[in-house]
Amino acid sequence: MFPVGTRAHVLRACLVVLTLCAVLGNSVVCPRPASALTLLTEDLPPFNFVQDNAPRGPGVDIVMEVLRRNGLAPSSEDIRVLPWPGAYHLALNTPDALLFCTARTPEREKQFKWVGPIMRVTVGTVVRKDSRLSPRQWRDLQGLRVGTVRNTVGEQLLIEQGVPSAMLHSATTPGDAVRMLAAGRVDVLAFNIHSTLYMMKQGNIDSAEYTVSMVLQKLDLYMAFNTDVDDALLHRLQSTLDAMRCNGGSPGTSDFSRMVQPYSPYFPPGSFPEERNCPRSGAAER
User: Which residues form the signal peptide (predicted)?
Assistant: First the structure.
């Protein structure tokens, strides 16, 4: 990887080469550049996760395909999988960083530049069904031990609503947060529902014993870029993502739909952006 101080210049140089390729067309053979972005994600099934020592999941597949179609050639080895607090901090402080999949919130709006949406997430409070402490409104959280994952949207929502920090029990990883709930060390877990239920299954925790007592927010997930990343590249990536959602008038036939279909058992309807009735991309782009 290039030194941090030179990465922005490398990315701009790649854009110049790609632009010349587009203008000159077939009259010149243009090199396929390596990825000039620092790719960051977390181990957060079922959105992005590590399987067989490699990043997997719909978030990974979508991001990699969008980059590939724009002349960037990342491999799974280019993706750094880190705990969310570390990935978030690094994305804010690395000029060429791309962090995915990131909930786009008002608090984060100016911290990053955005391409998306690529998925949707529901954040809620999860409690044991037999618990007498089942919050239905924000004020019901008062006096409870609330589990969160540090620096995630669930935690930020609680802070915005005035939940005292003394009530928050922040875990570094989603798995740790789910285990806190199962062990009774917290009364309620405020986190995304998809990952909570998935990790319960993976950890042999009976999810039937738990329920979602309150939906806190539904959010779109994006590719979040460091603010130093070139705007021209971001425009191209957004146009590519939009084109991938076109189905040519035949529902279920868009490139986007085809890519996420294998993951459908883990996501209820509405978890992905809708297709669009527009011409599909040419076969040459696939």
Answer: 1-36
